[in-house]
Amino acid sequence: MPDIFDSLDVFESWFNVGEMQEEGSDERILRQEREGQVISTLMKLTEGQASLSYGKQQL
What we know:
The chain contains 3 helices and no strands. With 59 residues, it is mostly helical.
């Protein structure tokens, strides 16, 4: 447990440890990670499109 937490109770209040121990939690966590990666990729793509559009306007 990191030093920033005074006790196990404080740590568990920040992170829902019980949910992590439930059956199927691995799949849920992986799904959330994949969704986060998709969103991140889409944001990068839209930023790239915005840059391309801005560059064309300057020509």
